[in-house]
Amino acid sequence: MNHNETKKSSLLGNLTVQILIAMFLGAGLGIFIHDNYDVEFAIKFSDNIKILATVFIRLVQMIIAPLVFTTLVVGIAKLGDIKTVGRIGGKALGWFFSASFISLLIGLFWVNILQPGVGLNLSNVDLSVAAEVTGNTKGFSAQNFIEHIIPKSIFEAMANNEILQIVIFSIFFGLAAASVGSFAKPVVNALDKTSHIILKMVNYVMKFAPLGVFGAIAGVFAIKNLNDLLITYVKFFSSFLVGIGSLWIFLIAVGFVFLGKRMKTLLNHIIGPVIIAFGTTSSEAVFPKLTEELERFGIKDKIVSFMLPLGYSFNLDGSMMYMTFASLFIAQAYGVHLDLGTQMTMLLVLMLTSKGIAGVPRASLVVVAATCGMFKIPIEGIALILPIDHFCDMFRSATNVLGNALATSVVGKWEGEETPVLKE
């Protein structure tokens, strides 16, 4: 490892330490405000301190659309033809659907074994807080699914950070550029240089990560009584942690099967993005940094730029595990019995309905609410999990990052597009 690579590793390590410190400081400040000031002040403090997280996430969102477009077009142009794109895309989707199915199955298994919803007291549940989420399920149909995937304007898609729509446009643009041949080289070269400039911007934006994590954590702890929440939801949250922990063990084990000892190196590269996703509850917030780290890990840029945008739309492993877990938890709480056949039908429904909701606010909850409605489970049951959902979302987001990093690395190895040499 040369001097520049050592310097990069040191910077990454320092950033990870800074983020961890920011998490503890944020939690400490939030708890202090919650315990020593009235509710009105705590809410105002939370709204103000969360501005730090908003600034960081908006800075990241600012560069996601141009990064996805430039890197994906260049990547596809380098892949060369429709046959190659189809081959890699087929492998990617095969992995994504397999991972989604297993994630859903893990959630279904543990919620049936541990039964966290059985015997729950529903008398103190505020059903009104579910209105915001359940309202988003109206019109949840095949029409909306298609509209969410196919862009009518690339500019509208970029303005709204609709990753999947940008991916669709970029695939067509990249294939067209590849088919034109040398005539398109100046455009492809310009986009290649642009992508490198945007990746340099990532380094500047990531300097705000500790502040963003600090603001997000402090804002949550200031308005939530963690002790009361954990006592009330100890069975639900502990059961959820068993499920998400099982999923992590499974993903890491699969990583060692396909990547061998290099899985340890991959984990070292993605620890920073995982912690940021955990602190901000946003896997989207680490998209640019994850792109950079996977390229440094040794996956060719054309594979990373093709796989990651698809993964963020189709491969949200942590969210998938939570969907079956939460849906059946609500059914248990209301005493709605679902036999195994019905549960497997629900799993297959979730496999499909969850694929078009990337970028939807509180997407997991929206899908859970829609699924509950389909299977005659009281949709207002969403109110049961809303108070603790933020903390579940921290683990979901971190798991999504791990799942996408693993998928990209394995497909890169399958394609022979992996090099053990770290990139400058």
Question: What do these coordinates show?
Answer:
- 79% of the residues lie in helices and 0% in strands.
- The longest helix has 41 residues, at 39-79.
- Helix 14 (317-333) packs antiparallel against helix 17.
- The termini are close together.
- It has helices at 3-36, 39-79, 82-114, 131-135, 142-149, 154-159, 163-180, 185-206, 209-223, 226-259, 262-280, 287-297, 301-314, 317-333, 340-353, 363-374, 382-414.
- It is globular.
- It is built from 17 helices and no strands.
Q: Topology of this structure?
A:
Layout lengths: L2 H34 L2 H41 L2 H33 L16 H5 L6 H8 L4 H6 L3 H18 L4 H22 L2 H15 L2 H34 L2 H19 L6 H11 L3 H14 L2 H17 L6 H14 L9 H12 L7 H33 L10
The gist of it:
This protein is an all-alpha fold. The protein has 17 helices and no strands. Helix 1 (3-36) runs parallel beside helix 11 (262-280), helix 3 packs across helix 13 (301-314) and helix 3 (82-114) packs antiparallel against helix 17 (382-414).
